[in-house]
């Protein structure tokens, strides 16, 4: 969707917001963690950190150690708070989860259906086996974050999210009406309708890429691995439904980038990885969508208020400033890996011009 010139002319020259949080990000580990973590911490105060490492983060002890490695990767971002998640598997111990939640180590649990996406082989093969875990989470108020796709090879990949709602999520929410559920990175009009109709305990995150691209992006002039992610982008009518949801002002929709970096060789390969690296310009990317939809006044709710309200956390008091100043996004970013090397990644919007620029706070610069 292209903005009408009138909407651009009436945009303010700058915009101040409560500092936003990212309610879904992949920070990885090792050199990649040290390379990408600053790109998230520069814009966001907190982030829900996905646990799909190899091996996955399944215990309180593993999450504590991972949180420490994240903080060590961010010497210049003392205020950044990683919020840790537990990777659910068939053998998850509800007692360890509850203990980790009470100690403030875990903020939520992440449900990956086994083999649904990157590093999900150890995920859940049968939701029924996790009933005791869901019951414990419901009773202690621990949110369940869901990768909502069936893995059934008979189901067309573009239908896997919608089928998951019918087969799994709707029955789960009915069985546990008090369970807080976030349907992550929604991609379809069916998910928008499901979340809107589900009541206050169900919410969804929406990524910048699913607001900007439809499935054609993966095939424009050839095969474009940089636009391949899971859940895969869908038809245009779904993108438009996501845009309406994001700018609707409804508290059940909030920001979650799903920034998912993979080394360039792992993306541009005969069997390329799913994931889009959008962290460095994510807030500008969302701002562009809200501007195009003439809803800039609703950006703060989506980016900085609805998430904390759902999670029962305080809102950030600090402000950021976005300046309306076009910037060209580089084709490739080279990030310092903290060990004398660099990691080269193709960012989302590579080669595009974005209308907004986040003003640096504390003198840090872009990658
Ligand atoms: C994520 C990753 O690479 O870890 N990939 C992606 O396409 N989003 C996993 C996920 O969130 O599905
Ligand atoms: Zn993800």
Summarize the structure.
With 367 residues, this protein is α/β, with parallel strands linked by helices. It has helices spanning 5-9, 30-41, 60-72, 94-102, 131-140, 160-175, 189-197, 208-212, 236-246, 264-267, 282-292, 299-311; strands at residues 14-18, 22-25, 46-49, 81-87, 106-111, 144-146, 181-183, 202-206, 253-255, 319-328, 333-336, 342-345, 353-358. It has a single domain, classed as Metal-dependent hydrolases (TIM Barrel), CATH 3.20.20.
Structure description:
Helices cover 32% and strands 17% of the residues. The chain has helices at residues 5-9, 30-41, 60-72, 94-102, 131-140, 160-175, 189-197, 208-212, 236-246, 264-267, 282-292, 299-311; strands spanning 14-18, 22-25, 46-49, 81-87, 106-111, 144-146, 181-183, 202-206, 253-255, 319-328, 333-336, 342-345, 353-358. The strands form 3 sheets. The protein has an 8-stranded parallel β-sheet. A 3-stranded antiparallel β-sheet has the order 1-10-13. Helix 4 (94-102) runs parallel beside helix 5. The longest helix has 16 residues, at 160-175. The chain binds N-carbamoyl-L-aspartate and zinc ion (ZN). The site of N-carbamoyl-L-aspartate has 12 residues, from loops.
Please give a handful of descriptors for the protein shown.
12 helices, binds zinc ion, 367 residues, 8-stranded parallel β-sheet, 17% strand, binds N-carbamoyl-L-aspartate, TIM Barrel, alpha/beta, globular, 3-stranded antiparallel β-sheet
């Amino acid at each position: 969707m292209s903005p009408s010139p009138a909407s651009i002319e009436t945009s303010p020259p700058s915009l101040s917001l409560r500092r936003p949080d990212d309610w879904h990000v992949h920070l990885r580990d090792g050199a990649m963690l040290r390379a990408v973590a600053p790109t998230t911490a520069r814009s966001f105060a907190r982030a829900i950190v996905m646990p799909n490492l190899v091996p996955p983060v399944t215990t309180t002890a593993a999450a504590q150690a991972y949180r420490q490695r994240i903080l060590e990767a961010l010497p210049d971002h003392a205020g950044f708070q990683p919020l840790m998640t537990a990777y659910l598997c068939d053998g998850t111990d509800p007692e360890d989860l509850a203990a980790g939640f009470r100690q403030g180590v875990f903020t939520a649990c992440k449900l990956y259906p086994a083999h649904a996406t990157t590093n999900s082989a150890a995920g859940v093969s049968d939701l029924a086996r996790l009933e005791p875990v869901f019951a414990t989470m419901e009773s202690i108020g621990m949110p369940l974050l869901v990768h909502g796709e069936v893995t059934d090879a008979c189901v067309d990949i573009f239908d896997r999210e919608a089928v998951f709602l019918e087969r799994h999520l709707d029955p789960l929410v009915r069985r546990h009406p008090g369970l807080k559920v976030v349907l992550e990175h929604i991609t379809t009009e069916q998910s928008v309708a499901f979340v809107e109709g589900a009541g206050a305990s169900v919410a969804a995150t929406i990524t910048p890429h699913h607001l900007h691209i439809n499935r054609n992006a993966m095939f424009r002039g050839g095969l474009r691995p940089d636009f391949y992610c899971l859940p895969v982008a869908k038809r245009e009518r779904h993108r438009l439904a996501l845009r309406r949801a994001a700018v609707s002002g409804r508290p059940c929709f909030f920001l979650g980038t799903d920034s998912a970096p993979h080394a360039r060789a792992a993306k541009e390969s005969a069997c390329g990885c799913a994931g889009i690296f959008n962290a460095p310009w994510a807030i500008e990317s969302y701002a562009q969508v809200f501007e195009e939809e003439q809803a800039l006044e609703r950006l703060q709710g989506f980016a900085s208020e609805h998430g904390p309200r759902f999670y029962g956390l305080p809102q950030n008091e600090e402000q950021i400033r976005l300046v309306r100043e076009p910037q060209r996004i580089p084709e490739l970013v080279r990030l310092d890996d903290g060990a004398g090397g660099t990691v080269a990644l193709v960012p989302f919007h590579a080669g595009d011009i974005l209308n907004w620029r986040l003003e640096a706070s504390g003198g840090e610069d872009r990658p």
